[in-house]
Specification:
Largest sheet: 2 strands, antiparallel
Low-confidence stretches: none
Order of helices and strands: HHHHHHEEH
Mean pLDDT: 86
Strand order of the largest sheet: 1-2
Distance between the termini: 19 Å
Number of strands: 2
Shape: globular
Radius of gyration: 18 Å
Amino acid sequence: SLCVMMAYDVPGILFARRLVSFPSLKPQRVALASFCAYALSHVLGAPALSAAAIRVRLYAHWMVPPAGIARIIALSGSTFSIGLSSLLGVILLLRPMDMPLFGHAVPPWSLRAVGAALVAFLFFYVVAAQQRGVLTIWGRRINLPGCRLAFLQVLLACADTGIACAILFAVLPSHPHLTYLR
C-alpha cells in the first residue's frame, strides 16, 4: 500500500509539468516526497496540512515553482478521496447489503442511490477533465488535469484502498459471513 502511495504524486507531477518552467525530477525524488508526505502525515496527524507542508518543503527545495507545488498537492490530496468514492459507489451499487453499519438499517434502494451518485460524480470528474481544460466554480477558475491523469488518479487510489482492505481482511479473525467486499 505504501508503494502505491509513493506513486500518488505522479499525476500531480505530470499535471504540474504543463507549466513553462518545471524542473526535471528523478522518480526517486517524487517517490521520496510522496512517501514522506504520507508516512509522516499519518503519524503526525492532520494529514491534509502536514502532507502539504512536507511537499512544499521538499518540492521548493528542488526548485519546483509554487504553482507546480499547488498542482501536485491538489491532485495528490484529491486522489485518495476520488478512489474511495469510486470503490464505495461501486460496492453500494452492487452489494448494498454488505455495508456493515448501514446494510440492514437502511433500504437497499437508498444505498444504491448514494452509490449511483458517487459513481456519477466520478464519471463527471473524468469527463469534465477531458472535455474542459478549465472549470469555473463560484467565479474561480480551476485547471483540470485531463482524462488520462484523472483516470490514473482513480486507478492509483482504487489499488491503494483495495490493498489496504486486503491487508485488513487477512488479519481479521475468520468468520463465515465475513467476505473481502464486506
